[in-house]
Amino acid sequence: MCYDVIIIGAGPAGLTAGLYGARAKLKTLLIEKSMPGGRAATTDIIENYPGFPEGINGFELGIKMKEQAEKFGLEIVTDDVTAAELQGEIKTIRTNNSEYRGKAVIIATGARANELEVPGERALTGRGVSYCGTCDGAFFQDQQVVVVGGGDTAIEEALFLTRFASKVTVIHRRDSLRATKILQDRAFAEPKISFIWNSAVERIIGEEKVTGVEVHNLLEDTRETLATDGVFIFVGATPETEFLAQGLKCTEKGYIVADETTVTCMPGVFAAGDVRTKELRQVVTAVADGANAIIAAEKYLEGCGNK
Ligand code: NAP
Predict the structure, then answer these.
(1) Is 136 one of the catalytic residues?
(2) CATH number, domain 2-112+237-304, options 3.40.630.30, 1.10.357.10, 3.80.10.10, 3.50.50.60
(3) Is 229 a catalytic residue?
(4) What span, in angstroms and rounded, lies between the C-alpha atoms of 254 and 257?
(5) Ligand 1 pocket, mutate which of 43, 282, 283, 285 (most atoms under 8 A from CB)
(6) What is the pTM of this model?
(7) How do residues 266-288 score in pLDDT, each as one tens digit?
């Protein structure tokens, strides 16, 4: 059995490619290692995806996208991709449990949250250290938490955490946030949120659970210990491309080089969503990539005499 298109990853890009592929009557398989929705599925409310004036929960949006694609016949398997042979006309995708062959491959694996890489972080993960406010916020009812980072994710999650925590301290390495203005304005207006600027968390302290963080003021070169019950880390993401064999052109950080056509340097291989080089990493640009990837794959297949 050889698929027309194999999609790797069930985030918004992969699920949109799946919808377009199945609807275009291509033999389309989507492989996902965990749940649908990608990183966006861990967002409590997505406010900037059109069509949902009240916002929509990220997990719910992922489920809806999956249902819509399956309605048109998309085949989805849950498995972890371990290797990919992408050269040649027939591409092979190896997973933990099987092996799949396809004429075109769309890589839509997204990116995973970065670690801060400081002492105490690994040992205390799940014991006060978290990378997901939506998942773990409720454990911190009336407690004090620290958020590390200054991007959209950090500020969105800091705002979410105010539902539970009595105090949220955002520690950022510069003196201005990277997050969009609307999020900044909300965070500055939120009485439960305070900021420690120009500072790095250098150590997470605790035995059984987190009790504090060591904060390094980078301007004054001073250090102090801040007591806290939880540390939420949102310091960017790394593209999930480790399984790829040599041959695809990637940036130093691992993003696959492709423009909005999603065409990569390898014939029949397309990169959609957060995994590719792009300016704006959002659900709305990911779904556009998913659609473009199928159009590009169709053109490629026609060129190969598929139709
Ligand atoms: P990001 O935009 O890369 O921001 C990462 C933040 O972490 C930056 O403030 C960065 O500081 C800081 N940082 C990075 N490495 C650090 C380190 N080692 N120690 C301390 N701080 C560190 O990542 P993101 O916030 O996860 O967002 C990823 C993408 O998704 C972005 O394109 C974002 O716009 C998008 N996104 C959009 C929405 C939305 O539209 N609602 C929501 C979430 C995410 P510097 O600022 O100094 O570099």
Answers:
(1) yes
(2) 3.50.50.60
(3) no
(4) 9
(5) 282
(6) 0.89
(7) 999 999 999 999 999 999 999 99
